[in-house]
Amino acid sequence: MSAADMAQTIQPLALNVRLSCQLLDVPESSYYERINRHPSKTQLRRQYLSLKISQLFNANRGIYGAPKIHHLLLKQGEKVGLKLVQTEPTKKNKVWSTDITYIPTQQGWAYLSTIMDRYTKKVIACDLGKRMTVELVQRTLNKAIKSQDYPEAVILHSDQGSQYTSLEYEELLKYYGMTHSFSRRGYPYHNASLESWHGHLKREWVYQFKYKNFEEAYQSIFWYIEAFYNSKRIHQSLGYLTPNQFEKVSA
């Protein structure tokens, strides 16, 4: 990642500039050069399309993936390629997405932290907590790293929630040699694959039950992930294979 790209990554964060530059190993001069530079026509065009993509994503309740969003853009007269709408990795353990979603129980909310491989669409780690804490997302990351036999140079994509921007989490990522990529504020489409998975999880499974307590929700959701989603649920984007099948054939 170039210094300019790094500067663009840290610009939206509500962090001390010097600390942010140190975390990403980028000179402060490169950061200020980037943010003070006038945007080019190409950059303005990309910003405009990012806004359009976000609007279409939100208007369709976060269900549509890149192909459908691309189709809607073309119908609106926008000349844009599918690759610009969403660029995906070409190997496993190159880009992961992570997020937290709310799970209702009769004793209150539980919080599901998930990490998904963007290439295989496999849920490689998850953890359920009674509170939405830094420790919850740290546990999930540790599970993911161990389950994938300590891969190198992984990019982890998340939103800018306080758990993910915490110094403790950044230090753990640095320890594992990972790069942190953030969704821009107000642009949930940048993490669309995991947003879509949360929607499937709730519509296909969670909303069929009224969990009495945390333990019941924990057992039910982990069964869905391991016994159904990863091993039996086919994906059009994977050539109608399951995540486990696609992982094997693409190895």
Give your account of this protein's structure.
The protein has 251 residues and is an alpha/beta fold. The chain has a domain at 95-249: Ribonuclease H-like superfamily/Ribonuclease H (Nucleotidyltransferase, domain 5), CATH 3.30.420.10. It contains twelve helices and five strands. The chain has helices spanning 3-10, 17-24, 28-36, 41-59, 66-75, 82-85, 134-147, 162-165, 167-175, 192-204, 214-232, 243-249; strands at 95-105, 108-117, 123-129, 155-158, 179-182. Strands 3-2-1-4-5 form a five-stranded mixed sheet, with helices on both faces. Strand 2 and strand 3 form a beta hairpin. Helix 1 crosses helix 3 (28-36). Residues 1-15 have low confidence and may be disordered. Involved in the transposition of the insertion sequence.
Summarize the structure.
This protein has 251 residues and is an alpha/beta fold. It is built from 12 helices and 5 strands.
CATH architecture field of the domain at 95-249: 2-Layer Sandwich
Mean pLDDT: 82
The amount of helix comes to 40-55%
Question: The biggest beta sheet, please?
Answer: 5 strands, mixed
SS strand fraction: 5-15%
**What is the helix/strand order?**
HHHHHHEEEHEHHEHHH
